[in-house]
Design brief:
The protein is of the alpha+beta class and about 130 residues long. The chain has one domain: OB fold (Dihydrolipoamide Acetyltransferase, E2P), CATH 2.40.50. The protein is built from 3 helices and 10 strands. The longest helix is centred in the N-terminal third of the chain and has 16 residues. The relative contact order is 0.13.
Length: about 130
């Protein structure tokens, strides 16, 4: 059986396109620390990340744990589909946003499923409203 050169060229082009296609580099697990113990959390468990000085806290429905990475590194790892920066010190899981309240024409207060409230910066307000379709 002999292959037609055009078929081979198409196959090579498809393989090349598939290998060049962006792979899902966003990881779904996050390492958290509580004292000397380390935990592997699924991204869906996480409601938010909050920075306080040099520490980054991971907020879940039941507890706060220390993150092992910076907010920037976390945002790059998880992507922006599910996690969105709302302020320079906070990233939220958009699936856990339950309420948005206007503080001014450009500033919002969001409430998460665990009743945690976070201020959305002026810079991030428009993108948050678009993502949440508010």
């Amino acid at each position: 059986m002999q292959s037609h050169p055009l078929e081979i060229a198409n196959l090579v082009a498809k393989i090349s396109a598939a290998s060049d296609a962006p792979q899902s580099t966003h990881r779904r697990k996050v390492v958290a620390r509580n004292g000397a113990d380390y935990f592997l959390l699924d991204a869906d468990e996480i409601l938010a990340f909050q920075a306080e000085r040099e520490l980054v806290w991971i907020v879940t429905a039941k507890q706060r744990l220390l993150a092992t990475q910076s907010l920037r590194a976390i945002q790059e790892r998880l992507g922006e589909e599910q996690f969105q920066r709302v302020h320079r010190n906070a990233i939220v899981n958009v699936n856990h946003v339950r309420k948005m309240s206007a503080l001014s024409s450009q500033r919002w207060l969001i409430t998460l499923s665990n009743s945690l409230q976070l201020i959305v910066s002026k810079r991030q307000a428009h993108s948050i409203r678009q993502i949440l379709q508010w």
